[in-house]
Amino acid sequence: MSQYFPGSSNFTIEGGTFNTMTYSYRNAKGSTTGGFERLQEYVAHGAFHDSGERFDPPKCHDNTRVAIIKKIMDWISGLDEDTREALIMWLYGAAGAGKSAIAQTIAEILDGQHFFLASFFFGRNDPQRGTAKLLVTTLAYQLAVKLPPMFRERLGLAFEKDPLINTRSLEAQFKALIREPLLELLQFFSSTKKHIVVIIDGLDECEDTKVQARIIDLSFNLLRGRDIPLKILIVSRPEMDISASFDTKPFYTLARIALDDDYQSEEDIRHFLEDKLNEINTQHRLRSYIPIGWPADDSLDTLVQKSSGQFIYASTVVKYVASPRHRPMHRLDVVLGIQLPKAGDSPFAELDALYRQILMGVEDVDLVLQIIGFVVLHPPNFFNSVAFIEAFFSLAPGDVQLLMQDLSSLISVENHPCYSDGSMSTVRLLHAFLKDYLLDQSRSKDFFLDRVKMHTQYAELCLAHMTELPALQSNSPRHPLTGMLPYVFIRLNFYILIA
To answer: Is 1 exposed, middle or buried (0-12, 13-18, 19+ CB in 10 A)?
Structure first.
């Protein structure tokens, strides 16, 4: 049992005394240790939203993402009836959709409004932010410097009782360093007006996929009793293990926000590009050589279209065009394909690195690239149903979904209403500019899709299927290719003409 005496600098707890001025613990034998100082040794400083190591982090451009930011803030404040009961929110979207920028903006808003905030921004391949080893201690430290001193004192005691608490399981750390200190704090400060908010960004960048799912499970376990005023915002790509973990959670405890067309990302991207290109017009050192009316409206339309709702394309373009060592007009022409880049110039280096990193994680990449090529190189106005693709490549039903699960941040397998059988699944590229990457050998290297080679392969498959179809029609009348002879014939003619 703990006792706190107002006006005193000492806090008596479990056979010892904490001094609230020095935050040191004196045990029954009289020795003094600094448990909180020990905690600081296990903090990932670069994971804070305001860390100096993350100088100038991506955040939402002014007057963009207004609706989604309001949705999240209303959830935190309990003003949204649809999400009021949820204690955890999952914000997810394709690679480069601007998720981290939204998380950063929310963190800055909460910080400015003096919420009790702790954040952890994962970073792939970062020794401190690439794993979850320092997740709990980092969150606990941030809460300790913002909550009343009793929380910090309780953390010091946890390290005094178990100097190796930071090596324990994530479950044990969550319990000892967050849940129990918060419960004890609430015994004295039960009327907390504002929720404590934890932001975990880039969960998919944690190197162990099993740990990713475990963090989600632990977050729900932490809040299961609804006895601590804590809300958790988790931001990630919709990767397989993460999605599967969220899918098992009770719907009333979880709010989901998908970064899709519902939040008008195209309008936001247009606004972002207009503002940034106008800055180049007025601030670039060669601004006097920029013609009036640059860039043309059709150029802006092309950039918005190529962005496919993903901010990473727009921000990459702006960084490239804004280079003070080059002419903005020339660089924009390179982006638009009007001029060729100079030797060694790589306008989409950031995007190329992202695509390579994602494709490197695909299990059967050769087969996946064949399917992507089938989608990318299809004849005009031809649908790419999953059933047709699986039949065309002699795959079992469901194989396309399994093969594409490692590419969920770039490619979507979607269901659409269909008059004939109720629904139809199709494959859609979430990044329209992924096609440009795959068809440019200088960019995609070993992931290159050779048009002539692939058209030839597809033509050979068409011929093979055309010879098999009569037997299929008599033996397997329900086979997906049965009745699709005209479509196979159209594709064959297309591939022969192209090849």
So the answer is: exposed
Q: Per the structure block, which two tokens stand in for 338?
A: 């009007």
Q: Which pLDDT belongs to residue 54?
A: 85
Domains of the chain by range and CATH?
35-259 (3.40.50.300), 265-337 (no CATH), 365-497 (no CATH)
Name the one residue in this structure whose structure tokens are 């959670």: 249
Cα separation values, 363 from 244, 331, 391, Å: 19, 36, 21
Alpha helices per DSSP H over 165-257:
170-174, 180-188, 209-222, 240-247
Share of the chain above pLDDT 90, in %: 62
Quick one: pLDDT at residue 372? 95
Q: Which two tokens stand for residue 339?
A: 């001029």
Give the model's confidence band at 293: pLDDT under 50 very low, under 70 low, under 90 confident, else very high. Answer: very high
Number of residues that make up the chain: 499
Max Cα separation, the chain? 92
In the beta sheet, which residues pair with residue 90? 234, 256
CA 409 to chain centre: 8
What pLDDT, in 10s, does the model give residues 431-445? Answer: 989 999 999 999 999
Q: DSSP character for 385?
A: B
Element (H, E) at 312: helix 311-321
Task: Judge contact between 240 and 405, C-beta under 8 A.
Answer: yes
pLDDT tens across 74-110, in order?
Answer: 999 999 999 999 999 999 999 999 999 999 999 999 9
